[in-house]
Recover the amino acids of this structure.
């Protein structure tokens, strides 16, 4: 198809009359489309005096573009009112066409800061902010009726010192943030969850080991199965063993190299690292027992996406481990055993499902970046709007 004026300008019903090749490029164009009265839709019109609109338009390469549009003022014979004709792709009273506004907003969305954009385009940063806000609102409106996700990840993250924490609801199937709500207690989330449509669609909810979230999920998503987040379970086990090691050997536990070796997975150690660790553990049999126990428990809990028959022997072994922990002489091990027992169903489900809150944690990183790029948010609604538009 040959290029015509409309496809060059990316606006319908325009005919280029004159084009000045300089920077910024000046394009004079005439409107060739139909004209209707904006009040009564009538086409019975009488042409009155001409007028000119000088507006910004999308760039040609690196060069800025000014569009000079000529139109007419009309008198409507239907309703007797005067009006200035409208141009498609250019809203009334605006000094820039929609393609140009989209270009600026997309650049800002892709990470170019307001100040740079303002310098490049000659707009004010407040204008860019206003345009971008409208861009995000429109983007969110497209997702307004999105149904509640089937696999939901719930986790908290820090918002501001004044407002405290916020809770993220993440669609783990499609890797996007479904919603962000201020607060993390049941009372704070109550009003949002009570109004949430299609709650019955949610089949799996992934949470960390927080009993308040468990209560919320049980109450609001009765058909969903709760799955503990693998990372948090592993970290809890690792943390407990590490604390005990610090009690047993306060001197060597300050050695950062050794600390790093003990924290890692045994199968990921280099041969010389394994040798170093082996030498230390041989000299300290109590610590070796703890270390082996942690590694075995990690190994037991790590697999994901197993079928029910593969889970059965693991469940038996897991229950035996919990019993072992509860009978241990150290109080912190007993506490760990009690916690694992209280969450045994949710932890056992980790073997069946492969999704975990790693996706949610990843989005938390991105949210922190968004917050830093904006030098912090005061208004939670603005923050939520930006997070939802960017984390999808
Ligand atoms: Zn009219």
């Amino acid at each position: 198809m040959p290029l015509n004026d409309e496809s060059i300008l990316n606006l319908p019903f325009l005919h280029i009359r004159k084009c000045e090749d300089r920077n910024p490029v000046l394009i004079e164009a005439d409107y060739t489309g139909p004209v209707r009265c904006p009040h009564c839709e009538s086409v019975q019109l009488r042409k009155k005096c001409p007028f000119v609109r000088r507006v910004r338009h999308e760039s040609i390469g690196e060069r800025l573009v000014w569009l000079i549009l000529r139109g007419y003022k009309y008198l409507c014979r239907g309703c007797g009112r005067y009006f200035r004709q409208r141009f498609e792709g250019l809203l009334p009273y605006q000094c820039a066409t929609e393609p140009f506004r989209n270009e600026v907003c997309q650049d800002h969305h892709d990470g170019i800061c307001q100040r740079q954009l303002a310098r490049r385009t000659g707009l004010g940063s407040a204008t860019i902010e206003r345009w971008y806000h409208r861009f995000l609102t429109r983007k969110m409106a497209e997702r307004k009726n999105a149904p509640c996700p089937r696999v939901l990840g719930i986790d908290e993250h820090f918002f501001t010192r004044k407002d405290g924490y916020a809770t993220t609801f993440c669609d783990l199937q499609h890797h996007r943030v479904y919603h962000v709500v201020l607060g993390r207690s049941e009372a704070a989330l109550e009003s949002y969850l009570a109004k949430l449509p299609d709650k019955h669609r949610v089949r799996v909810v992934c949470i960390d080991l927080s009993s308040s979230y468990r209560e919320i999920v049980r109450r609001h998503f009765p058909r969903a199965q709760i799955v503990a987040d693998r990372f948090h379970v592993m970290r809890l086990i690792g943390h407990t063993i590490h604390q005990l090691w610090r009690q047993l050997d306060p001197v060597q536990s300050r050695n950062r190299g050794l600390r790093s070796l003990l924290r890692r997975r045994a199968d990921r150690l280099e041969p010389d690292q394994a040798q170093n660790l082996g030498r230390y553990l041989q000299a300290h049999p109590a610590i070796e027992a703890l270390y082996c126990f942690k590694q075995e428990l990690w190994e037991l809990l790590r697999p994901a996406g197993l079928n029910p028959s593969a889970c059965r022997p693991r469940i038996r072994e897991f229950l035996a481990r919990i019993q072992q922990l509860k009978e241990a002489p150290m109080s912190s091990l007993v506490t760990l055993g009690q916690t694992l027992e209280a969450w045994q169903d949710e932890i056992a489900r980790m073997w069946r499902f492969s999704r975990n809150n790693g996706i949610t944690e990843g989005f938390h990183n991105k949210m922190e970046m968004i917050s830093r790029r904006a030098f912090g948010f005061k208004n939670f609604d603005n923050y939520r709007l930006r997070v939802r538009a960017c984390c999808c």
Observations:
- Residues 37, 39-40, 42, 76, 78-79, 81 surround zinc ion (CB under 6 Å).
